[in-house]
Amino acid sequence: MAQMRKSNYTEDWLPIQGINNGMILLPGQMRVTGVKITPRNIFILDEDSQTNILIALKNFYNTLEFEFWLVVADRPVDISVYLSQLQLLYNNTADPARRKLINEDIQKGNSFMNNNVVDTEYFILFKEKNMEILQKKVRLLINGLSSCGLVAAQISNEDARIILDNFLNGGRTTEFGTVMPI
């Protein structure tokens, strides 16, 4: 009788050991991490400011001497708590003019929820084994993006999970097999 080979992973082709401290842990002590860039609509700025930011980004990318991935991930927008607060405010307001304004906001929020509006997030990721070099690269990315007028921070565990969900599940967030807090 043939013995079945026991795998260390859920899927052998995807050897992810875990997510910890904003890093995706891979075999051989390799880690994938990076920075999340806060979105900024530069196209509302004057043309010179737009040009300056784009040139600064181009120059910054050209100074990076390591392999990196630019990742764009969509995250569903959840405004259900905000809608609940609006509904409570609507119920506690007697003034018809204010009730009308609050109701318009509720309807607009419902249209967002019904149309599956997403928040687009931007990441720069890289793979590194050495923790010291990894931290230097994260600082380099944060400081370099700051000099371009953008705000960035190291990715969180949740960010890493969202990125993997987007790649593996076509952008749909999965909840099966997830332990949820009470």
Q: Count of helices?
A: 5
Stretches where pLDDT falls below 50 for ≥5 residues?
Answer: none
H/E element sequence: EEEHEHHEHEH
Largest sheet: 6 strands, antiparallel
Distance between the termini: 46 Å
Number of strands: 6
What is the alpha-carbon Rg in Å?
A: 22 Å
| CATH class wording of the largest domain | Alpha Beta
| Strand content bin | 15-25%
Mean of all residue-level pLDDT scores: 85
Shape category: flat
Give the helix/strand class: alpha+beta
CATH fold annotation of the largest domain:
Alpha-Beta Plaits
Please give the share of residues in helix.
40-55%
Oligomer: single chain
Q: What does the model show?
A:
Strands 1, 2, 3, 4, 5 and 6 form a six-stranded antiparallel β-sheet that branches. The longest helix has 19 residues, at 96-114. The chain is α+β, with helices and mostly antiparallel strands and 182 residues long. Helix content is 43%, strand content 19%. It folds into two domains: 18-76 and 118-169, Alpha-Beta Plaits (2-Layer Sandwich); 80-114, no CATH class.
